[in-house]
Amino acid sequence: MTAPRVCGYRANRGELLLVPETGKPVLGQWEPIVTPDRWQAVCSTFSAGSLYMHRGSGAPRLQGKRAAPRYLAGGILRCGAKRHDGTVCHGPLCGQKAKSRKSPYTYACRDCGRCSISGPLADDVLERLVFSEAAGQARPSENVHQRWRAGELPLDERRKIIASVITRCVVRPGMKGNHTWDYSRVEPVWR
After folding, report:
1. Among 16, 117, 123, 185, which is least packed, fewest CB within 10 Å?
2. What pLDDT sits at residue 51?
3. Which of 129, 148, 146 is nearest to 191 (CA)?
4. Where does residue 159 rank: exposed (0-12), middle (13-18), buried (19+ CB within 10 A)?
5. Distance (Å, whole) CA 146 – CA 18
6. Are the beta carbons of 171 and 147 closer than 8 angstroms?
7. Where residue 127 falls among pLDDT bands split at 50, 70, 90?
């Protein structure tokens, strides 16, 4: 939609070609789809300062903005699998859609790929840890816990609450064939 060719202008790598003597755009030898005025209105809608994302041929990439986390424990959970040399992986467990029907998403290690955990169960463990007696003085108030349970807190606020109590959680790999949930697989590192 933002390509100059739709209004009959020529471009090279996203840059509008101009006639050097006049400074006017070079016209192509094809039938334009829209008028230049309408094309400029569309381009201003998708420009960098607008509410819409700037896209199109030659459009600059959006930089400096990281994607917001989609999952509660993404980056907080760390892999506890032992490598062949005896060291522990400690790679971040990242949230991803699950391939099974039992869980909508899982957290899996991208470094070694040997440790994964059910997403909703891991989130439940984090909630239990944050609001448990073991959290000590850093434990959030009961009011915060009620708002958490009611679903009133957005994801970024819940992540800040977890980060105020826990620096990370190390997840040990599960046992193949063992279908019971073991809460001791997740070991918190308290602040």
Report:
1. 16
2. 45
3. 129
4. buried
5. 63
6. no
7. very high
Tokens of 45: 């809608």
User: One-letter amino acid identity for 165?
Assistant: V
Residue 18, both tokens: 């101009």
Kindly provide the residue ranges of all beta strands, DSSP E only, lying in 54-165, ordered along the sequence: 77-79, 93-97, 105-109, 116-118
Which structure tokens are listed for 142? 């009961």
Residues 46-58: tens digit of each pLDDT: 665 554 444 555 5
More confident residue, 100 or 173: 173
Burial class (CB in 10 A: 0-12, 13-18, 19+), 13: exposed
- AA identity, residue 93: L
Eight-class DSSP state of 82: B
How would DSSP label each residue in 37-62? HHHHHHHHHTSTTSSS---STTPPPP
d(CA 164, CA 67): 22
> Chain-wide mean pLDDT for the chain?
84
Q: CB-based burial of residue 99 (10 Å sphere; 0-12 exposed, 13-18 middle, 19+ buried)? A: exposed
Backbone angles phi, psi at 75, to 5 degrees: 85, -20
**SS3 label, residue 88:** strand
Residues contacting residue 46 through CB under 8 Å, at least 6 positions apart: 1, 2, 52, 53, 54, 55, 56
**pLDDT, mean of residues 153-182:** 87
